[in-house]
Amino acid sequence: MSLDPKELEDFRAEVRAWFEENRPADPGFLLPQSFMEVGTDEQFHFLRDWQRKVYEAGYLGMAWPKAYGGGGQPQALQDIVTREMMRAKVPFMVNTIGLNWAGPLILNMGSEEQKKAYIPGILSAEDIWCQGFSEPDHGSDLGSAQMKAVRDGTDFVLNGSKIWTSLGVHARYMILLARSNPHANNKYEGLSFYLIPMQIPGIEVRPIRKLTGEYGFNQTFFRDARVPESCLIGGEGNGWRVAMATLMFERGAAGGQAGGHAMMSTEVSEVVALARVAKRGGRPAIEDPLVRDQLVRFLIEERGLALNSARKRLAPLNAEYPLSIAMAGKLAVSEFQRRLCQFALSLEGGRAAYYVGDAHAIDRGLWQRAYFNAFSATIGGGTSEIQHNIIGERVLGLAKS
């Protein structure tokens, strides 16, 4: 089903008006900047209520099948909604892991029973999802996961721990990679992938306090937690293939996400505004030609990233290296955000030492908090170093050494 340009513009105007009219009021407490920073119950409930409202308005999961609670409409409409959410700077969709990773995976590889059981709750935010990939002793080496899943009849018994489980204390389900066959020919063949209910005996979630002073990350412990084999997705022993498909969704290299943005990204226009009030040598920092030169460079890069996001959907513009833009997107955007926040702090001079809650902090400590939090995106979903290796080996065809 294709829509003509006028229909798309009319829909854009409708969506823009809805977000202007339904923008949530300031809740009176500090909201997180991404799903990785949801650390309090009041933040969580505020954001879950907001996602439910957007979904009930028909603006989430628009391209997912109607049979599972989606809208069954063209992807172009959902893309417009997502862009308008970002433009309006309304709060992000809290169930990011469900909407962008678990949901597309289940629609792509799950059974009919799994689709009916999980997809509606993902869209409404009734069922929050978290991710069980990283382990304390293995970092980005996902293939070396040691979490055990031992078959016992028609069940699997889980033992081990996962770390950095964002939203873990609020999640109803987890996507989990575990070792079901320790005697396989190689480490990749011995893994299986599970859709795990979190409210069962033997699972404990412990919050982790971050550098920002906030929570959001957790460590999850499994001690003889028992789940039925119906929790398997992709078949026993095929966990590595399923995990790689999940990471393609997580990194934005594959489409099929439900829509909505996952974080409140800082923009160059906000740094320009900061440069007008921050002082350098007693004068507004923006009057410094070196500052202005750097701001222009950031504006060019920001525009380039936005155009690349559109370009990756046009096959003729990606003929030479078909996956190059899609695979590089996560790396480029996360590192751009980190550098932009770091530059913003440099504009504040000595006042950059003030943090959230200090009366002397510029913009209530926004940039200090954003800078610290920016590092999580350069680590989650594969560190920047891992992303460089993936692009070099899988996109450019370079040797491993």
Features:
401 residues; alpha+beta; Butyryl-CoA Dehydrogenase, subunit A, domain 3; three-stranded mixed beta sheet; 11 helices; 9 strands; globular
> Could you name the CATH class of the domain at 268-395?
Mainly Alpha
What portion of the residues fall into strands of 2 or more residues?
5-15%
* Discrete helix count: 11
**CATH evolutionary superfamily of the domain at 268-395:** Butyryl-CoA Dehydrogenase, subunit A, domain 3
Identify the CATH architecture of the domain at 268-395: Up-down Bundle
What's the SSE pattern?
HHHHHEEEEEEEHHEEHHHH
Average of the residue pLDDT scores? 91
Lateral arrangement of strands in the main beta sheet: 2-3-7-6
**How far apart, in Å, are the first and last alpha carbons?**
47 Å
In CATH, the topology of the domain at 268-395 is named: Butyryl-CoA Dehydrogenase, subunit A, domain 3
Overall geometric form? globular
